[in-house]
């Protein structure tokens, strides 16, 4: 029996492909995934697969070639750019006498390496355990040993495999409960943003398209950004002020990739809900990527999986500084709404135009007026400040006099929740709504 090695930093990459359909770009991306996981890629090997071998995926002759190449290059890890069944993974490890990891396992490993938040770590561990649950029958000989032999433990007992399965199931159940609690806390925070009626915008896109760099450039945040796949896993939400529509929230989310493991999509549903519940998606595209149209399709496929396909999108072509004659611009659709934006998050080109387009998209009739509220209306005053709607304030014995500047729809929704006080505010503002010069 083959006892799995704990080593595995020197990797040989295998790219299975149908006859006549080898794509070097797909192999290059897989190599970048391997390097992102910390592997040193020493060799790559295409493997034509006309019909998948149930035992090995690749043919036995190709498997022997892989074993010889591993010996020649010193590779102690074999990465296969395909999903392997547990049987295929076990058989390949026995034959090659090296650790074998498929595409799903590699992506899960990268996510485990990059997750920073408590929620992100729980989600990654849950996905890994679900993946592992089907792979407990491996080359480990100890999994077939039975407990027993000592006083009080003699008899059939249970195998180590059964013990591992039981412990794994308990751990999965515990992680699910913890994630439900974290998801409930995230939902409470989201409800607070919804109550304030602040428009929600989420950045989505293929991994390494520059989402986090754009997020930092727009918000002044310091979210981690690097020229590597899956640099960002944990969602970051920041408030963006200074737009003509008033404040909005902007969320940076995990990057997508082709063939994203379904277990991972399922585990990250609560994180991806920032995209699923947004009012607008900024779909960030690497303008310098020759495969950008394919990338857009692949991102849209993942959005369909998380029920976000129907949310309006604004395509943001980033990295125009890397293409010849790249100039910032905004393309409009038939309703004069921004449909595409061409920017460079690194140089800042086009960001002002993008912010203006966002402001126009969410702008409406503005309420610009003075509002009189009593001293007892402290909660309403605080909510107006939280919305960034107060431009000036004066106080006397009658209460507060607030100079407001906020969208009319937002004002009406806020005041409709305040009973008689809110109706009094609506009556005042209806006399002066959109009166831009009525400031005194």
Automatic annotation (TrEMBL):
State the compartments where it is located: Cytoplasm
Keyword annotations = Coiled coil, Cytoplasm, GTP-binding, Magnesium, Metal-binding, Nucleotide-binding
According to the UniProt record, one GO cellular component term is:
cytoplasm
Cross-referenced PROSITE patterns: G_HFLX (PS51705)
Q: Which cofactor does it need?
A: Mg(2+)
Q: Which InterPro entries match?
A: EFG_III/V (IPR035647), G_HFLX_dom (IPR030394), GTP-bd (IPR006073), GTP-bd_M (IPR032305), GTPase_HflX (IPR016496), GTPase_HflX_N (IPR025121), GTPase_HflX_N_sf (IPR042108), P-loop_NTPase (IPR027417)
Look up the domain of life of the source. Answer: Bacteria
Q: Which NCBIfam families match?
A: GTP_HflX, PRK11058.1, small_GTP
The function of this protein is: GTPase that associates with the 50S ribosomal subunit and may have a role during protein synthesis or ribosome biogenesis.
Q: What is this protein called?
A: GTPase HflX
């Amino acid at each position: 029996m083959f006892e799995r090695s704990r080593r595995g930093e020197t990797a040989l990459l295998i790219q299975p492909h149908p006859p006549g359909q080898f794509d070097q770009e797909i192999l290059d991306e897989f190599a970048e995934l391997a390097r992102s996981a910390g592997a040193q890629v020493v060799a790559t090997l295409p493997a034509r697969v006309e019909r998948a071998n149930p035992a090995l995926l690749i043919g036995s002759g190709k498997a022997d070639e892989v074993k010889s190449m591993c010996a020649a290059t010193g590779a102690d890890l074999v990465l296969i750019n395909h999903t392997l069944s547990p049987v295929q993974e076990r058989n390949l490890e026995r034959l090659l006498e090296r650790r074998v990891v498929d595409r799903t396992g590699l992506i899960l490993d990268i996510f485990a390496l990059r997750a920073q938040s408590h929620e992100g770590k729980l989600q990654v561990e849950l996905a890994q355990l679900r993946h592992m649950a089907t792979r407990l029958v491996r080359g480990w000989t100890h999994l077939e040993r039975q407990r027993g032999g000592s006083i009080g433990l003699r008899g059939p007992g249970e195998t180590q495999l059964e013990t591992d399965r039981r412990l794994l199931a308990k751990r999965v159940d515990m992680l699910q409960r913890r994630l439900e609690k974290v998801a409930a806390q995230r939902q409470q925070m989201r409800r607070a943003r919804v109550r304030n009626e602040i428009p929600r915008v989420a950045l989505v896109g293929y991994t390494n398209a520059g989402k986090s760099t754009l997020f930092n450039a727009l918000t002044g945040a310091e979210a981690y950004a690097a020229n590597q796949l899956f640099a960002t896993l944990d969602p970051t939400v920041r408030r963006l002020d200074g737009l003509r529509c008033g404040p909005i929230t902007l969320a940076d989310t995990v990057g997508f990739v082709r063939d994203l493991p379904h277990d991972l999509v399922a585990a990250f549903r609560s994180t991806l809900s920032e995209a699923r519940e947004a009012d607008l998606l900024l779909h960030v595209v690497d303008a310098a990527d020759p495969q950008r149209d394919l990338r857009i399709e692949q991102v849209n496929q993942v959005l369909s999986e998380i029920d976000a396909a129907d949310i309006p999108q604004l395509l943001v072509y980033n990295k125009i500084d890397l293409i010849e004659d790249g100039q910032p611009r905004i393309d409009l659709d038939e309703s004069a709404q921004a449909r595409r934006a061409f920017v460079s998050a690194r140089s800042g080109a086009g960001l002002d135009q993008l912010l203006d387009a966002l402001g126009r998209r969410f702008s409406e009739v503005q309420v610009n007026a003075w509002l009189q509220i009593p001293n007892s209306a402290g909660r309403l005053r605080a909510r107006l400040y939280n919305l960034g709607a107060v431009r000036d304030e004066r106080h006397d014995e009658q209460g507060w006099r607030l100079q407001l500047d906020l969208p009319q729809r937002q004002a009406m929704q806020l005041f409709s929740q305040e009973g008689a006080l809110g109706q009094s505010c609506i009556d005042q503002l209806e006399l002066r709504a959109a009166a831009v010069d009525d400031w005194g």
